[in-house]
């Protein structure tokens, strides 16, 4: 019995790398389809059946991937950061790579490019998320958690700017955080790019100028020692 039990345990513990890869690819398609539909049709206008149809999978497969509200959140995370489950942008690979650059000009341009591209992929989803949370208490709670994580990311960004002498020490950390959160908001992207018709490059340049203007006398153009 012992040997049989061990064999059974081993069999159950085995995971097929190919199956895992296929499952990940299927989920990616589902989230991409969900992102497109939520962004264009809104939360109420998107059904799990429509997501499955666009993703090329059955409605049952979509249902197995999560509740509708969870798919919206996951689709937003994937669209913004490029992957699900990023709890801190500071530790996220692309951001960490930008932060490793000691040249302040390249660093600031790189961070603003990351923000602009993230908004390009996800800002419509953010609007859908805000709207849907107004009538869904569970989604509202998860949105609050997401906003708290965003707040933490802003604090980390302010600390990095201060450590590089880009942000003025004469401005309170909390004030910097509040103002940067406003400037880097997806709502601002929607207003300037989607509504006013700004080009992506113009928006990025505006972000850089705005951060520099907030910081007073800066050290942009120098290197971190």
TrEMBL record:
Molecular function as annotated in GO: DNA-binding transcription factor activity; transcription cis-regulatory region binding
UniProt keywords (A-Z) are: DNA-binding, Transcription, Transcription regulation
Question: Which stretches does the entry tag as region Disordered?
Answer: 1-21
SUPFAM superfamilies with a match to the protein in the record: Homeodomain-like (SSF46689)
PROSITE patterns assigned to the protein according to its UniProt record, in alphabetical order: HTH_TETR_2 (PS50977)
**What sequence ranges are listed for the domain HTH tetR-type?**
24-84
Q: Does the keyword Ribosomal protein apply?
A: no
Question: What is one Pfam family matched by this protein?
Answer: TetR_N
UniProt DNA-binding residue ranges: 47-66
Q: Matching InterPro entries, A to Z?
A: Homeodomain-like_sf (IPR009057), HTH-type_TetR-like_transc_reg (IPR050109), HTH_TetR (IPR001647)
Where are stretches of biased composition, namely Polar residues?
A: 1-13
Domain of life the protein comes from: Bacteria
The protein here is known as HTH tetR-type domain-containing protein
